[in-house]
C-alpha cells in the first residue's frame, strides 16, 4: 500500500485542533482516531509525529477541562516524551509546544511558569497566519496576567482577543469567547476598584449567555454579579444574585462551594452566625468532594477566625498555606478581613500583625512584575 503523504495527515491534525478549540468532543475524538490510524500508514516525517503528540496533549487538556471530576492523566508526560526525543521542532511546532505547556501550567495554578511558556510561544506567534489562533493566544495571555494582577497588561491582550472574536460572533463558540473576554475585562476593572465599570460587562455577558441557552455561563455570570455587588457593599443585591446562582447551578451540577464561601463571608461579617455556619458546612462538604485544596484552606481560615477563638498563631498558620503565587491574592484579602475583625474586637496588637500580612501579600503580588525572560 502506498504511504500517505505527511502533509495530508498534518491537514487532518489541523482539523482536529479546530474541533478541540470549539469543544466539539465527538468530532475531535473521531479525527483523533483517524489520525492515529493514518500515522501507521504515513511516510516517515518526524515533524508530523511531533505535531500529533502535541495535539494529543491538547486533546487531553480539553477532556480534563470538560470532565474536572474524573481522574486526570499525567499530562506532563506527553510533553516530556516530546522533549525527550531530542528532535528540533520547526517554528510552528515550537509555538504549539510552548503554548500548550503554558496552558497546562495555568491549569496547575503555576501562573509564573505559564507566563514563561506563553512568552516563548509569543516569539513564534507569527508562524501562524490564523487570526482566531492568535485571538486564542491573546485571550490566554490576558487570562493569566489577570490572575497575576497585572491589570494593564491583561487589558491589552484581552482587548486584542475581543476585537477578533466580535468579528466572528456569528458562531456560538466565538460568542462564548467574547463572553470570556468581557469577564476578564470586568475582573480587571474590579482589581482597579472600578466595579461600576465591571457591572455592565457582567450584565452584557449574562444576556449573551441567556441568548445562547448556556446555563453554565449564566450561573457563572450571576455569581460574578453577586461578587461585584458585594464589593460595592450592596449586600442585599449581592445575596440575591448568589442565591440566583445557586438555583441555576444546582440542577446542572455546578461547583457551588465558591458561592457558599462568599455567603459564609457575608453572613459572618454581619454577625449572622447561624446562616454563616450553614453555608460553611455546605461549602466544606462540596469542596471536599471536589478535592479543592485552595478552598478548603480558605474555609479553614474562616473556621479559625470566626468559629474558634481567633487565636493569632492559628490564623497566621492558616494564611501560610496560601504562600504561593496563586494564593497571595487570597492571602491579601483574608488578612485584611482578619485585621478588621481584630480591630472591631479591640485586639489591636493582633490587628497590626494582620495588616503587616496584608502588606507582605501585596509586595509578593507586585514582585510578579518581573516576569520577562530574555533569551
Automatic annotation (TrEMBL):
InterPro entries in the cross-refs: TPR-like_helical_dom_sf, TPR_rpt
Pfam families with a match to the protein in the record: RapH_N, TPR_8
Superkingdom field: Bacteria
Signal peptide (UniProt feature, chain positions): none
SUPFAM superfamilies on file: TPR-like (SSF48452)
SMART domains for the chain: TPR
Protein name, per record: Aspartate phosphatase
Amino acid at each position: 500500500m502506498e504511504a500517505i503523504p505527511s502533509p495530508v495527515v498534518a491537514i487532518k491534525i489541523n482539523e482536529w485542533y479546530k474541533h478541540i478549540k470549539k469543544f466539539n468532543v465527538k468530532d475531535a475524538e473521531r479525527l483523533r482516531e483517524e489520525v492515529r490510524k493514518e500515522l501507521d500508514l504515513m511516510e516517515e516525517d518526524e515533524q508530523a509525529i511531533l505535531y500529533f503528540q502535541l495535539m494529543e496533549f491538547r486533546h487531553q487538556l480539553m477532556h480534563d477541562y470538560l470532565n474536572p471530576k474524573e481522574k486526570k492523566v499525567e499530562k506532563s508526560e506527553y510533553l516530556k516524551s516530546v522533549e525527550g526525543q531530542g528532535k528540533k521542532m520547526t517554528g510552528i511546532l515550537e509555538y504549539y509546544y510552548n503554548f500548550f505547556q503554558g496552558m497546562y501550567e495555568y491549569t496547575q495554578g503555576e501562573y509564573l511558569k505559564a507566563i514563561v511558556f506563553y512568552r516563548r510561544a509569543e516569539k513564534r506567534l507569527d508562524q501562524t497566519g490564523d487570526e482566531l489562533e492568535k485571538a486564542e493566544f491573546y485571550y490566554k495571555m490576558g487570562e493569566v496576567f489577570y490572575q497575576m494582577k497585572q491589570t494593564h497588561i491583561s487589558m491589552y491582550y484581552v482587548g486584542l482577543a475581543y476585537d477578533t472574536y466580535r468579528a466572528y460572533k456569528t458562531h456560538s463558540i466565538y460568542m462564548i469567547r467574547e463572553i470570556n473576554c468581557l469577564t476578564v475585562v470586568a475582573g480587571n476593572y474590579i482589581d482597579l476598584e472600578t466595579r461600576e465599570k465591571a457591572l455592565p460587562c457582567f450584565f452584557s455577558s449574562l444576556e449573551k449567555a441567556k441568548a445562547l441557552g448556556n446555563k453554565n455561563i449564566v450561573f457563572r455570570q450571576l455569581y460574578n454579579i453577586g461578587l461585584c455587588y458585594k464589593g460595592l457593599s450592596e449586600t442585599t443585591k449581592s445575596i440575591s444574585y448568589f442565591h440566583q446562582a445557586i438555583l441555576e447551578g444546582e440542577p446542572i451540577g455546578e461547583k457551588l462551594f465558591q458561592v457558599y464561601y462568599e455567603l459564609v463571608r457575608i453572613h459572618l461579617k454581619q454577625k449572622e452566625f447561624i446562616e454563616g455556619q450553614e453555608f460553611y458546612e455546605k461549602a466544606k462538604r462540596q469542596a471536599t468532594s471536589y478535592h479543592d485544596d485552595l478552598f478548603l484552606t480558605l474555609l479553614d481560615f474562616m473556621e479559625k477566625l470566626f468559629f474558634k477563638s481567633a487565636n493569632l498563631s492559628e490564623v497566621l498558620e492558616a494564611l501560610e498555606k496560601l504562600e504561593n503565587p496563586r494564593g497571595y491574592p487570597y492571602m491579601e484579602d483574608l488578612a485584611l478581613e482578619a485585621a478588621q475583625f481584630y480591630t472591631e474586637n479591640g485586639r489591636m496588637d493582633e490587628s497590626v500583625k494582620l495588616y503587616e500580612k496584608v502588606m507582605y501579600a501585596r509586595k509578593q503580588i507586585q514582585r510578579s512584575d518581573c516576569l520577562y525572560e530574555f533569551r
